[in-house]
Every structure is written in structure tokens, then in C-alpha cells.
Amino acid sequence: MLFTKECDYAIRIMRALSSGEFINVSTICTMENLSSAMTYKITRKLEKAGLLKSLRGANGGYALNRSLKDISLYDVCTSIEPDILLLECMKKDYQCSMNTQNTPCLVHGEFCRIQRILLQELQHKNLAELFRK
Q1: Percent above pLDDT 90 for the chain
Q2: Cα–Cα distance between 26 and 36 in angstroms, integer?
Q3: 3 state DSSP class of 8
Q4: Cα(131)–Cα(19) distance, integer angstroms
Q5: Helix crossing, 5-16 with 25-32: angle to 10°?
Q6: Residue 13's closest CA among 70, 61, 56, 83?
Q7: On the chain, which terminus has fewer CB atoms closer than 10 Å, C or N?
Q8: pLDDT value at position 133?
Q9: Predicted TM-score (pTM) of this structure
Q10: In whole angstroms, what is the distance from residue 74 CA to residue 83 CA?
């Protein structure tokens, strides 16, 4: 749902790579106190999303694929968890007996408003601002 441990780790991985240098997974794990299995899994997702690039070999590792100012928190989070939702009932085809066409749920409506604000804020906060670089 909202912010999983993987999403938190993804942000920490991006912080470890914020220098722009290629850094190996072992070093990232040490810098951010992360497990290597989870770090490998997340770096692959970040690379697939186009946020990281990899270099194979003895001097290999990962580096940012774009500048920090061109990567938002939204980009990082949705590369890990495509559906950033406050509540399960916000899923597209979710059926809720308390939220029907004839009797809309006011709580659902309020969370939808908050959801829009959250997504806007995540889209407007880039990693350069977050990491003060």
C-alpha cells in the first residue's frame, strides 16, 4: 500500500548513489545499513524503471541514470510500488458496500482528496531537494 519497507530502502539506495559515482551493492549496503538480498532486488527495480544504470565487472556497481533534480520521490516510490494508495478501497475495481453510487462514502471521498495532495507532493519533491545537493 502506501510506503513499504522496499520504498524506504529505494530512497536510501538513491541517497547512497547521490554522488553520481558507480558504487557496488556491498558498499551501498554498508552506507545505508541494508541487507544485500533486498538491495539487489530493489536496484534491479530501479534500473528497470530507468533511474539507475549498472556496470558489470570488478569495478562495477550502480549509478544514477538521471540527475537528482530530475528524479522525484514519486518516481522512486512508483518504481517499487506502482499503486501508492492510502487505503485498499481506493483500488480501481474495489467493491465496497459502504461506497455505492447511491450512497457515496464521505470517508472515501476525503481520503481521495488527501491521496491527490500526497501524489502532487511526491511529484514535486525531487531528490536534489531531499538530499540537499
Answers
A1: 65
A2: 7
A3: helix
A4: 10
A5: 110
A6: 61
A7: N
A8: 66
A9: 0.85
A10: 11
pLDDT digits (tens, 9 = 90+) for 6-62: 999 999 999 999 999 999 999 999 999 999 999 999 999 999 999 999 999 888 899
Amino acid 63 reads A
Structure-model confidence comparison of residues 2 and 67, the more confident one: 67
Phi then psi for 64, rounded to 5 degrees? -65, 145
Burial state string for 85-119 with b = 16 or more CB within 10 A and e = fewer than 16:
bebebbeeeeeeeeeeeeeeeeebeebeeebeebe
Question: Rounded to whole angstroms, how far apart are CA atoms 31 and 13?
Answer: 9
CB proximity list for 117: less than 8 A, separation 6 or greater: none
Are the C-beta atoms of residues 32 and 16 closer than 8 Å to each other?
A: yes
Answer for the pair 54, 61: CB distance below 8 angstroms, yes or no: yes
Q: Are 96 and 40 in contact (CB under 8 A)?
A: no
| Strand runs labelled E in the chain | 52-55, 61-64
Q: Which residue has the cell 539507475?
A: 52
